[in-house]
Specification:
There is one protein chain. The chain has about 300 residues and is α/β, with parallel strands linked by helices. The protein has ten helices and 13 strands. Helix content is about 35%, strand content about 20%. Strands 5-4-1-8-9-10 form a six-stranded parallel beta sheet, sandwiched between helices. Strands 3-2-6-7 form a four-stranded mixed beta sheet, covered by helices on one side. A three-stranded antiparallel beta sheet has the order 11-12-13. Strand 11 and strand 12 form a beta hairpin. The two termini are about 25 Å apart.
């Protein structure tokens, strides 16, 4: 670890969600319908994890693309209000360097229309991501910047990987990142896909070839961990009532990283993750329901009996 505790860093595209709720149906071409509800929200992914970490009182930096548009201003305000310091990777652009999705919610389903301009990964961007992450205690990895993470790792920064779903996931495809990361936090579906196995227990054994401490999220069944060849399941927090799973994995990662930042055991890190992930699902939206640090520590003390 880098000397005394410093900050947690991550680079990622920002996701903005516009929700039109209460539509009776989707409009046909040429038609206009009014929804009963509307909201503008920060979307999921690593930015949501970092916002949750900032809300927990952890010093956090994000490197991302922010333009001069209203959505970029909304994102910057969301970061700063949570105590997250944004570093802009494309400050001169007149484009909208974010991912923007319109979600139309009908009684039976959700339909999305999305826009993504993003930003190119140039040598200048790589240098800036490294400069803004240098000295971090922990860095959450993005698949676009392996050279940066290799240098940071050599300097003592702990690296965590959360790939998300990919139809072509495999050990061979992700081997360079798996070999570089200190922790990988897939959900059950991702773990089975990347390892080509049929059960989480089998997937954990494969992943133990890369990681001394294995973590596989099991959704409503809790989280499987493997350490020193021993597998255990840390159950979910029973008091949380499920409303919406959006952002649960991002919130789990925030709690898990909180534990890593404070040098907690693997089981304690997962307990924190189960608390922050569990609180997230009690409301609609990935950042609507969240834990303060005081609440997280109170819940952890209450449910420490869940640990092996």
């Amino acid at each position: 670890m880098v000397g005394s505790k410093t900050f947690i860093s991550g680079a990622a595209n920002v996701n903005i969600d516009l929700f039109f709720s209460g539509l009776p149906r989707l409009p046909e071409e040429g038609q206009e319908l009014y929804s009963k509800g509307f909201s503008l929200q920060m979307g999921g992914g690593l930015p949501a994890t970092l916002i949750n970490l900032g809300r927990l009182g952890i010093p956090v930096r994000i490197q991302t693309g922010l333009g001069k548009d209203m959505f970029s201003r909304f994102a910057r305000d969301a970061f700063e209000s949570a105590g997250v310091t944004p570093f802009n990777l494309c400050p001169q652009t007149d484009a909208i360097p974010l991912n923007i999705s319109v979600a139309m919610l009908t009684p039976g389903d959700r339909t999305f229309c999305s826009y993504s301009d993003g930003f190119p990964v140039t040598d200048t961007v790589l240098e800036q991501v490294y400069a803004d992450s240098k000295g971090a205690s922990i860095c959450a990895m993005d698949l676009r910047f392996p050279e940066v993470y290799r240098q940071l790792h050599q300097e003592g920064t702990l690296l965590t990987l959360d790939t998300g779903w990919d139809d072509e996931m495999s050990i061979e495809k992700y081997r360079p990142m798996l070999e570089l990361a200190d922790f990988y936090t897939p959900n059950q579906k991702e773990a089975l896909k990347i390892t080509g196995t049929n059960t989480p227990e089998e997937a954990a054994r494969v992943l133990s070839e890369f990681f001394q401490k294995v973590v596989i999220k099991l959704d409503a069944s809790g989280c499987l961990i493997q350490e020193n060849g021993v597998q255990q399941v840390i159950p979910v927090i029973p008091e949380y009532v499920h409303q919406d799973s959006t952002g649960a994995g991002d919130a789990f990662l925030a709690g898990f990283l909180y534990g890593l930042y404070h040098d907690c055991s693997l089981a304690e890190c997962v307990l924190y993750g189960n608390i922050t992930g569990g609180k997230c699902v009690t409301a609609v939206g990935c950042l609507t329901a969240y834990c303060t640090e005081a609440e997280l520590l109170e819940k952890a003390a209450r449910y420490r009996s869940l640990l092996p």
